[in-house]
Amino acid sequence: MEKVSNMQTKLFKFPSIGDQIHATMVDWSIKENERLGEDSVEYIKSPINYTGNKFRILNQIDKYFPRDVDVFVDLFCGGATVGFNVNAKKIILVDNNIFVIALLKHLASSDYLTLKRRLELLIAEYNLSYSAKHGYGYYREQGYVSGNNGLKEFNHDGFYNLRATFNRQKDKLTGHSLDMLYMLMVYGFNNDIRFNRNDEFNLPVGKTDLNKNNLQKLEQYIVRAKKIDYEFVCGDFRDKKIKKVLLKADFVYADPPYMITNAVYNESNKWGNQTERELLSLLQELDNHKVRFALSNVISKEGIINEPLEAWVKLGNIKCESINYHYRSSSYNKKNRWANEKEVLITNGHKRTFENPEQAIYWKQKEGFAPSI
Ligand SMILES: C[S@@+](CC[C@H](N)C(=O)[O-])C[C@H]1O[C@@H](n2cnc3c(N)ncnc32)[C@H](O)[C@@H]1O
């Protein structure tokens, strides 16, 4: 069996069983070195290069997660970076992107070596580069790498043929289709996944290919999947079936599209004021049912304020932690990317009541959803 070389992940320790801190409330002052204990989880990277993934800030956010969790829900799971790196008896991962959920599920249930062989068959069939096997230098020496274009030229024809074949599939969710989708992501622009309204993959060829890094991420992900009890669920956070799942959870981590930033999954500004309010309302309902949660978000950027969120935070009944947002990977859209962006983690781990109930009534009238009193 091929070895995964040198896991570059950070070893993060969870507290020992019997830790009482979370019996009633989150201890906000907890330090990382106080969390050392028996159980430990090594952070792994998602096999899907997901814009906005939380890998670089995992250690900043999961110190606010309780540790006595039976059912953990990763709501808006994206590439599953958070869900696959937490310590819980059962992890439910929810997203409304059917392709992302199907792909993650498919990869998680694959056998690594068999999957690798299938990907190699696609490489051969579409005449794609394979730097995990031949090394990047091989393509450079052959004159296939020019300027800043990486392997773009080499893979141009093969990529577009593969894309056309994938887009012709009647069922894009079969195992074979999902293998092709994985390859389109790996060989495609910015390693993103994007579909047009006709469910056609529509990103152009990119500069990269199936390299050692991708294989390592795949193997680590599959190994992790075998060790944890997980379930992927495709749905909108407003669906009844999702709400049921959330109400039964011990802890919900929510990482929605950020209203005041841009990403592939929020290209046509589908996520606006109204959706934001619906989500906050849902989180408030969870709180009313004593379900603990943490919400990632950006509260302000370049003078633009996420008003519903700011108003909620100002009520003072939830806790708002600053997150160091300089975690984002470099990308084609680097310019101004980090400009004055204030990323936060909002939690309800503490139990509280409104000091001033009038505030809540005002809130309900003004903002359209009611916090608990
Ligand atoms: C910020 S990303 C999540 C990133 C993820 N936490 C990670 O680490 O990879 C937001 C996700 O929300 C999903 N999403 C957008 N609108 C949704 C909705 N109405 N219901 C459920 N999921 C939604 C998108 O498909 C996207 O994957």
Structural description of this entry:
By secondary structure, this protein is of the alpha/beta class. The protein contains twelve helices and ten strands. The strands form two sheets. Strands 3, 4, 5, 6, 7, 8, 9 and 10 form an eight-stranded mixed sheet that branches. Helix 2 (98-108) crosses helix 7 (175-187), helix 6 packs antiparallel against helix 7 (175-187) and helix 10 packs parallel to helix 11 (307-314). S-adenosylmethionine (SAM) binds at residues 50, 52-54, 76-79, 81-82, 95-97, 100, 236-237, 255-257, 265.
Quickly list its features.
Adenine-specific Methyltransferase, domain 2; two-stranded antiparallel ribbon; 12 helices; binds S-adenosylmethionine
Return the CATH topology of the largest domain: Rossmann fold
Ligand types: S-adenosylmethionine
Mean pLDDT: 82
CATH superfamily of the largest domain: Vaccinia Virus protein VP39
What characteristic shape results from the CA principal axes? globular
Helix content: 25-40%
Q: Estimate nothing, just give the exact number of structural domains.
A: 2
N- and C-termini, Cα separation: 58 Å
Number of helices: 12
| Strand composition percent | 5-15%
Assembly of the depicted chains: single chain
